[in-house]
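User: Design a sequence. Structure:
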């Protein structure tokens, strides 16, 4: 292999590695959605990063875990009398979610240490890759912070902490995609500079982040269940039942009727912003990214409506969350294409 070919193969390999980690993050988001919809998130009441890798391996160990679960409000107020078999079912999803989170960390950190040791990380990328690895560790801490909110006074987790947990995962996903594409450019041209964020890109990010935040709050407050009709909400455009007694800010951040309403209609603002992004991409030669983005947006809108009219069918709702993650990845790729210095 010539030196030139070898120099190109290194960033190309790093790019493929980051795409693989990005797929793992999407898998974690999928299992996280199942965990939420099956009300499994509080089934493991302790955070043991090392010993928690293994599930209970004996009947006595299972009973001990079940006894810990029986001490929290969710069991006493909602699941009183739950069988051990039912507990094992919810325990599985939370355990799998945590295992996949650890796997993401290992898949990012172990190869990164190896690549750094071999000195094959291109100049200027080491800090970014280690920042992404650190973000995985932070995400684990945020996950426990979220779970802890539901162990003493509540029967579920704080929707604010749930939103932080989900948005951090999606930020990690976007960072992986952006960096993978930067490295792919470097593989094609060793002189290529990283893509930049344009003013329009920042606007798209803000609009999409608001929609993702509203989606996380909708999930955290079970707000999807307050109406199963579309486009009206229980025969009204603006739903009845919004509690304004605590003021507008309290309603916007905590009322399930209002949050559901905002989530379903802010979606069209986000869709318009992404449509304009796709048009800008198409005009600048990014037809592939534009086409992918449009397809994912259309699928996400359809799944959002389907989630509502099916009364939050679990698998449709999970698919809605997964495609939401794919939409973040597609948007990151599209914004990267728009911000290329050679574009």
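Assistant: Done.
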């Amino acid at each position: 292999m010539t030196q030139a070919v070898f120099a190109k193969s290194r960033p190309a390999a790093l790019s493929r590695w980051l795409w693989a980690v990005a797929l793992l993050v999407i898998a974690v988001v999928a299992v996280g959605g199942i965990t939420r919809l099956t009300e499994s998130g509080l089934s493991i009441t302790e955070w043991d990063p090392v010993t928690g890798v293994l599930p209970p391996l004996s009947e006595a160990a299972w009973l001990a875990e079940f006894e810990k679960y029986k001490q929290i409000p969710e069991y006493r107020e909602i699941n009183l009398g739950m069988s051990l078999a039912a507990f094992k079912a919810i325990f599985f999803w939370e355990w799998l979610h945590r295992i996949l989170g650890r796997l993401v960390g290992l898949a990012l950190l172990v190869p990164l240490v190896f690549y750094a040791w071999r000195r094959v990380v291109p100049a200027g990328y080491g800090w970014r890759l280690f920042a992404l690895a650190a973000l995985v560790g932070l995400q684990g801490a945020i996950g426990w912070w979220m779970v802890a909110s539901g162990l003493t006074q509540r029967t579920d987790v704080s929707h604010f902490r749930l939103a932080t947990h989900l948005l951090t995962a999606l930020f990690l996903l976007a960072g992986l995609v952006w960096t993978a594409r930067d490295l792919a450019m470097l593989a094609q041209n060793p002189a290529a500079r990283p893509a930049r964020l344009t003013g329009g890109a920042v606007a798209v990010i803000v609009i999409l982040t608001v929609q993702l935040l509203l989606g996380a709050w909708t999930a955290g407050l079970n707000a999807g269940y307050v109406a199963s009709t579309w486009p009206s909400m229980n025969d009204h455009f603006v739903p009845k039942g919004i509690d304004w007694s605590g003021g507008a800010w309290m309603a916007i951040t905590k009322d399930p009727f209002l949050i559901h309403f905002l989530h379903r209609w802010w979606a069209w603002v986000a869709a318009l912003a992404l449509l304009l992004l796709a048009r800008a991409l198409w005009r600048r030669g990014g037809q592939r990214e534009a086409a992918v983005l449009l397809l994912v947006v259309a699928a996400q809108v359809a799944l959002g409506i389907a989630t509502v009219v099916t009364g939050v069918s679990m698998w449709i709702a999970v698919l809605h969350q997964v495609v939401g993650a794919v939409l973040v990845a597609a948007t990151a790729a599209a914004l990267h294409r728009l911000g290329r210095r050679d574009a």
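Residues 114 and 326 are 29 Å apart (CA to CA). The two ends are 31 Å apart (CA to CA).
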